[in-house]
TrEMBL record:
<protein>
    <submittedName>
        <fullName>Acyl-CoA dehydrogenase</fullName>
    </submittedName>
</protein>
<dbReference type="InterPro" id="IPR009100">
    <property type="entry name" value="AcylCoA_DH/oxidase_NM_dom_sf"/>
</dbReference>
<dbReference type="InterPro" id="IPR013786">
    <property type="entry name" value="AcylCoA_DH/ox_N"/>
</dbReference>
<dbReference type="Pfam" id="PF02771">
    <property type="entry name" value="Acyl-CoA_dh_N"/>
</dbReference>
<feature type="domain" description="Acyl-CoA dehydrogenase/oxidase N-terminal">
    <location>
        <begin position="27"/>
        <end position="98"/>
    </location>
</feature>
<dbReference type="GO" id="GO:0016627">
    <property type="term" value="F:oxidoreductase activity, acting on the CH-CH group of donors"/>
</dbReference>
<dbReference type="GO" id="GO:0050660">
    <property type="term" value="F:flavin adenine dinucleotide binding"/>
</dbReference>
<dbReference type="InterPro" id="IPR037069">
    <property type="entry name" value="AcylCoA_DH/ox_N_sf"/>
</dbReference>
Amino acid sequence: MPADPAFAAVPAHLNPVIQGDLWLSWIAREGLTALALPPEAGGQGGTLAELGRAARTLARHAPGAAWVLWAQRLCIEQLHAAHNRAVADYLLPDLIAGGRAGACLLPSTSAPVPLAARRLERGWRLQGRLGLAANLQWAGFVLVAPACFEGGRRARVLLSGDDDGLRRSPDRPEADWHGTRTAELQAQALFFRDDEILDIADEPDAGLSAERLARITAVDRVLRAALT
């Protein structure tokens, strides 16, 4: 974890696209994406309390960068917990290194509405409004989203910024969101494959354990507390 003087040197740029990529690279270089993540997952270990302290310090110097950290680190935790190990193990090194952005849906007072998934011969078709998401960086991003399959089965699926059918609005223009690359996302006839399903809620052998779900919630809570 970097010392306080390092936080004062968080890079700044007037162009929000460049700003977001600079923040992501800096956060990864300083080890924040790997903090409180087990070494066997590519992390550096440490506690959630240490992650919270680092996030609070970052928020004092660059609130927007703290939002980027929240999204990146939470996306990493979501993938670390995923039942689909092939996808998780492939993406985690790039996310930890900051080579790819991990986007997250912004907190809401209501539960996110799952995307409707319709079965096709060789995959699924997704439709629905996701809402606001942060860290949709130009370098490319992935996003964990809830989906509802035919028959009422609930799942988490992995979307990519270059998926055909994933539409985004212009970035939020307010100064507080500069560089966070926060925008509205919508799936319009988005095709995805079975191997992009991270886990299925009502299948015990393919879903999130209570322990892993609690860990995701704890990481989210610690990082969001720093933002307030």
